[in-house]
Amino acid sequence: MSLLTVEDLSISFGAGPLVVDRAAFELEAGGSLGLVGASGSGKSLSALAIMGLLPKAAAVRSGRIVFEGRDLLAMDEEDRRALRGGALGLVFQEPFTALNPLMRVGAQIAESLRLHQRMDAASARCAAAEALERVGLTPGPERARQYPHQYSGGMRQRALLAMALAGKPRLLIADEPTTALDSTVQAQILALLKRLQAELGFALLIISHDLAVIHALAGRAAVMERGRVVELSDLATLLNAPSSPAAKRLIAAYQALGI
Known about the structure:
Helices cover 42% and strands 25% of the residues. The chain is built from 11 helices and 10 strands.
């Protein structure tokens, strides 16, 4: 049985046209899948639908999102909230805006641990420091006392990853995790994600417009264009024998960069 199955997912804003149109893909426990496509192709909206975090103006029009045998779209908000930050982890695209600038980084991680892991305050503080050290932010207790503005962009991205992993997710969704990072820091973040997945065994849904990012982390890829999944295959097939025009354009851009 798949850990996650998305079936015929359609999303629109109000009465407008579908911005995600019958998207379908699945992900096995411990596996990795990349959602790749140009900006506006529906990748991030699909991820937000899985998390139950769609913008207020957006609504799911049809389809199913089945996680561990349960249709997330049929669950009430309280049950879905219990999954977020626990079994379902999300690394947001913009780390600076995703972190509360008025709270210390460790306190933000500890807050999630107290909610989802039922830890007491002291245990949550220790676990938050350990989570920061797991992603390379050392010493953990000192980093936990700092505020987001005291972190660099790469450090903030690591902090978001620490927060998402602290809840011990079985599925981690990483939405454009290397946006606005220089090439050296980007490589570090990708290597960190790959190592942590191997160590912790979570399934990874990686979202990016950059095929190099997908290539670094995913075993399979779903190519999205105008809200539709136009190609779904393993990475080797996608890179060597793409069948859709959208995938061929991605490959051409990828090869033009000499990657």
